[in-house]
Write a structure and sequence with these properties.
Blueprint lengths: L2 H21 L8 E5 L5 H9 L4 E4 L2 H9 L7 E4 L8 H4 L5 E5 L2 H14 L3 E7 L15 H9 L4 E8 L7 H19 L6 E7 L6 H6 L4 E4 L1 H4 L4
Parallel strand pairs: 1-2, 1-8, 2-3, 3-4, 4-5, 5-6, 6-7
Length: 232
Amino acid sequence: MTESSISDNIMRVRDAIGEAAIKSGRASEDITLVAAAKTKSKSAIAQAIAAGIDAVGENRVQEMLEKYKLDAYSNTSLHFIGHLQSNKVKQVVGICDLIESVSSAALITSIGKRAVAMGITQDVLLEVNIGKEPQKSGILPEQTEEMLELASKTDGIKVLGLMAVPPVFEENERNCYYFDIMFQLYIDMNKKKYDNVFMDFLSMGMSDSYINAILSGSNMVRIGTAIFGNRT
């Protein structure tokens, strides 16, 4: 995809984000745009950064590290948005500005230990399996309070919010059902006021669903295809 195409796509996405934000009582700048760059080149990422994305999101640790060595993420924030295995924690902590996909007590503990060893605090989001789908990672909604309590007591970690990949349906109403449930969970957890837990971000919504997600309260969206085109 050409530089102008990526730039034009981001302009269209920004316009749509702005419209949805206004309808939900917010402004365009209240929504963080994460460009999901799985399989995309350093050149494509550079074009997206130049066009004004807020962050780059990567799904695969090895691919992310290869691009990191090429300095592909300069002048932007780097998020890890894929499934994170415990044996990959050492390769992610301290490199990513935000780990969005913390999906278990074991990961909370492992990330905290690694961050303490490095003398840093790692920002994270807790991933919630809002649809309780067995093929997806994430804590169950009813486990969220317990996991936030654990995170609040874990040195080296700061929770900045929640992330979810809800079930996908062709009908908008069914998509919005899960977005709405996730937003209510986010509001409920924000009332708990744990130490080291800040409900700054609710990350949900991708290329085919980000408008509905924003209308339901999301303030961080992870968009790949609508920016870069289909993956090869």
